[in-house]
């Protein structure tokens, strides 16, 4: 059999899902031609599908070295680089793909998605429009386009885009309309669309979870918690095969982090409330939280996610505890602080912070780059300029990750704490020595709130459900004051309001630390909800 026939046979087997046969055929090709670009490229795809991104990248790059005109290989290299959290290289690879093959809609879509995450919205729109024009029936591409338009506040255009998708993927289209209403500040109007989506496809967990978050954002826990718990029906997301705990007395209970470190910190408050029903509690979560919680959760076996799962009698996700407790907004356990910083964590910071003028103010402006809404909830460092100019010399950066730039911090006279923040004990010690923490919705926010530190939270227009709508205070964190966008992407109004109150705080006015407490039922709609005009009630 010729090499060409072997490649064609391998591609046929690959397309039919016969991965083992395809792999054997690709390797047979390489036995005759060790640098055959198509065989190397396709083995790279198989490696990526198996979760081995490093091997996938090596194979695809060898293929491209042999034949740099493989547009599809540049596109697949982009996918791999994105999985490796190398967005700049991934974007460059997508651009190489469309330079070679301008008709490769998937590469335009990928470039647009990466640019969206980088908050380069105009460039992202241009890429996604090309993708949509190339494949106007591709539901995934239309979805990406509609998501971007929605995040930019261009709701009517997003609606028009979704209209094109309804005949191809009705369920995603229904969910997309719900997302438009929710992103507009109208979660009550979003709910029926999410309901239609999961009625059309009962096992579609995305619509159920979105409906849950819409109810919870309105403060409607009665309807929200049962839907929230249905996220556990997705068996692939279950972290344990143990029986699910629903609040009954058990000997040994395993509590698992399931929604990230911030939500885990938020829900630790429930542990004292369940101790009388459980003889032993094991807590399994992200490793960098371990030492913090060993100190703050006496009598509990604290494990990391890498540790073996203990042989408990039942398990519960940490973020299920509010539902198990049947929490209402007015009954949220808010005995703050429930996280404290040991003196040994605090002492090293006193010398490090000695040269910084008081009051000392911590800053966090970016979260986990892997979070799907990171581009909405985060700011660039440049967008903090009004805040930094309001009180030069008072700021401490708690920022970690790619959003941090040491040279920018030095130029702005901001103390960079990152080299010393190797785990959350160091972060807790630093926060205990600060007079105020200003942060986006991220795990440091939850840490500051659980410690009872003065906290100002910068929120995007459609925030995480725990922050509710409209109000300046938080029933979850009594020391938090919320600064909300006035419109999608409008960080200027947030930084301007914070800058004005920072000046007052530095001048000695501590009253600005206190949020205005909401009286009555939480709003079911954002007071600044976007006017959507006369959108039809149905498709």
Q: Would you identify the regions where 5 or more consecutive residues have pLDDT less than 50?
A: 235-239
Q: Enumerate how many helices there are, as a single number.
A: 25
| Side-by-side strand order of the widest sheet | 7-6-5-8-9-10
Largest sheet: 6 strands, parallel
Describe the structure.
The relative contact order is 0.07. The protein has a six-stranded parallel sheet. The chain is built from 25 helices and ten strands. Helices cover 49% and strands 9% of the residues. The protein is of the alpha/beta class and 539 residues long. Strand 6, helix 22 and strand 7 form a beta-alpha-beta unit.
Which structural traits does this protein have?
single chain; alpha/beta; 539 residues; 25 helices; 9% strand
